Amino acid sequence: MDFVIYILAGAGVGLAVGMTGVGGGSLMTPLLILFNIPYHVAIGTDLLYAALTKTGGVISHQRRQTINWRLVSLLAAGSIPASILTALSLDRFFGDPDAYKPLLTSALGIMLILTSVVLLFRRKIQSSSQHSAEHQPGFARRHASTITVIAGVVLGVFVTLSSVGAGAFCAALLLMLYPHLPALRVVGTDLAHAVPLTFIAGMGHFLLLGNVDWVLLGCLLVGSLPAVHFGTKLGTMVPNEVMHPLLASLLMLLGVRFAFF
């Protein structure tokens, strides 16, 4: 019976991802926790789930040449070492998963709240980015590469702790840091960075902490992969003006729940 539930959960998240374009991490991890999957296992498993489900998108964007590999390299220069060090720190300084559970729940709550804010103000962020393309401060232009690496470090830490943020939050950072970057290249670059980050973070959880349930991962993939394709078609029938506020409100409630209660 559990297998069926997990497959249906994967299908539900895949459907929502296909309809809204929102990364699965912000939906899958809270759902798994609601199914009484331990926090650390939900996060570790979801990281590898994210890496595998996003790979197809990277291949598609690479074919269309909509990935800025220089920015991917800068983000990864900060995020990959930060992810590895975060996993090593959890293994070194905490005796068991219960000891670092408060850290995981707080990080999850914070990233869900930030993702919700990004969804609610997505249009405002995009329009502000377009406006700042002409008026970007000289400091930001001169130090854009350094700021990108630092942003990668922050992402590496929080994505490893929560499995959330490699998608919508990273895209918002790119929009703000590189206002001249076309929207499609923002999406492609974001995906190309998310895959290695979530894979390294997931493997860190598996190799160092044992926080991956491979049977659960397989069930989620069986349900989600076809559902994403169907959700993409269904999404054309439901306006984003309806879906995004509903989803953002749900993520905000979940974020507050995990961060403060």
Written account of the structure:
The chain is mainly alpha-helical and 261 residues long. It has one domain. Helices cover 85% and strands 0% of the residues.
Biggest β-sheet strands, sense, barrel: none
Report the C-alpha radius of gyration, rounded. Answer: 18 Å
Mean pLDDT: 85
Measured as a percent range, the helix fraction is over 70%
Structural class call reads: mainly alpha
Low-confidence stretches: none
Apparent shape:
globular
Number of helices: 12
Our measurement of the CA-to-CA distance between the termini, rounded to an integer number of angstroms, reads 30 Å
- H/E order of the elements? HHHHHHHHHHHH
The count of domains is: 1
Number of strand segments: 0
What is the oligomeric state here? single chain
Give a topology summary:
Blueprint: H1 2-20, H2 25-34, H3 39-63, H4 69-93, H5 97-120, H6 122-135, H7 138-142, H8 144-162, H9 168-177, H10 183-209, H11 214-235, H12 240-260
Helix pairs in contact: 1-11, 2-3, 3-10, 3-11, 4-8, 4-10, 5-8, 5-12, 6-9, 8-9, 9-10
For this entry, give a set of tags:
globular, 12 helices, 261 residues, mainly alpha, 85% helix
Summarize the structure.
By secondary structure, the protein is an all-alpha fold.
